[in-house]
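Quick start: what a row looks like.
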Amino acid sequence: MMTETQRVGETIAYLSTKTSLKPEIGLVLGSGLGYLGEQLEDAAVIPYGEIPHFVKSTAPDHQGRLLIGRLRGKTVLCMQGRFHYYEGYTMKQITYPIRVMAKMGIGSLVLTNACGGLNRQFSPGDLMLITDHINFMGMNPLIGPNDDDFGPRFPDMSKTYTPALADLARKAAADLHIPLREGVYLGYSGPSFETPAEIRLFQSFGASAVGMSTVPEAIIARHAGLKILAISCVTNLAAGILDQPISGEEVIVAAKAAGKKFTALLSEIVDKMEL
């Protein structure tokens, strides 16, 4: 049986046949937010189904492609769509690309997602800087034997989201005159949306937004010692806040509507990053 190190090595060997570029920054683009990938220059475009040890993305509006190219003079490895626990994959499968990115040499990881707002002051289309998270997914991707080649047995999570990158995001948003909310993101397994009672519970925890991704990837990135920045697009107010149903289509439409604003902010952040 292959070890995780061997699998990652095979994946990287395959990707090196597609491009000679060496990624410096990793980007994970969530639901409705794949437009940024189209802005990359000299990009190698690789469908997930062709990459050894990657699974396929089945989530709506996730293009399921890995792009390696240049953005604002930086070399970026970009996931157009991610994998989710609710798709039936294991935590190790959905976070595997983060380990590949880390071993390819990226120093910083930017995570994005579409989320439901728990703060009544939020509106659909708002962007929220994630300052911390709550893992309410019922699982941790580090459960099982630890491979010291990837990181320590007990990684510190006290500053999961890198303060310097958060400050950089605030500066980029201010320069572009884009309002940037801030708050705690709660990861929920899905695929059902949350009940009003669950939303009230999450609000009592101090969460500002809820979604079905990001937390496992952040844990693995922290385990690997990467710098992490995460930004959510608020696509709806969560169950019970407004007296109306929630749909997956609504989430995608709202995320796409905010796509140009989000893309501008992410591009500016990449431009300001010091490698």
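That is the whole record. The radius of gyration is 17 Å. Residues 199 and 239 are 7 Å apart (CA to CA).
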